[in-house]
4-diphosphocytidyl-2-C-methyl-D-erythritol kinase
Amino acid sequence: MRYNGVVARVPGKVNLQLSVGPLGADGFHEVTTVFQAISLFDDVTVASSKAGDGVSINIFGQTASGVPIDNTNLAVKAAQLMIEKYDLPKDLAIKLKKEIPVAGGMAGGSADAAGVIVGLDSLYELGLSRDEMESVGATLGADVPFSICGGVAIGTGRGDQITPALAKGSYNWVLALSGQGLATQSVYKECDRLREGLSIALPSVSEPLMQALRAGDAKALGKSLINELQPAACSLRPALRLVLDVGNDYGALGGVVSGSGPTVAFLVSDDEHAMDLTVALSGSGVVSSVVRASGAVAGARIVESF
Ligand code: ATP
């Protein structure tokens, strides 16, 4: 071990596509999703600590409020899993500097788990491949492998089987955040309720969307954004429809609820357009805050060793 600690920087994500298959016998839905990693980051520090201290966690940053500080925190779960699996020292101090919204459909908890996995691989020089780290991550949550991978990728299965996708260009996002999160499980449950009696096809990748990404065509991408959980998220949180309307009225290239929501992601053409929409959303009274981000960015990576 050359260092006492490392810092991993991990991005949040938006789902450019989220198609949801029928409810399976195991209680899960098969999904096909296209992720894009965007420039909102959690910084995850892992450092060795005094013998007997065990795993400790300390959380700060803009979105720290309400994040659990016990063993239910995904970062702690990731540390316990890695310690067990690779027989690592049991005393570890984790620090999370959070910028990714909590319970916002942007994979905040998954990002922190990914940061711990990549951080411990580096700290203890385990030499794990990205694939190995992604499979460890998949046991913790469906979005963890993508948080490790970053960029643009297709997720199948539960969204945890990741294939990087060919994508060109850089995209500007305006994100409308809600003060209160939505629990992923409740949104899936509402989705099942709304679909009762309907026959649901197996999900597949949207060809127009992939074509837009290959061409780096933001306008075409805006038109292809799709989230089959959106009706359920809007049903549980009707104000989201108003948020989507503001984006439409102000000429967003496209707008979509990210993942299970309630964050709404708007694709815009340039900085000026982003500014107009930010002002309109902020003044609308239907969102708690608005942030800007761009994508695609890299997945979890080490930015500091000490
Ligand atoms: P996803 O997009 O992967 O469905 P999300 O972004 O909607 O997830 P998270 O931010 O991961 O949601 O938070 C979901 C819940 O997980 C929170 O309400 C919180 O109680 C719990 N949680 C556990 N660990 C963390 C963490 N490190 N950061 C944020 N939330 C965490």
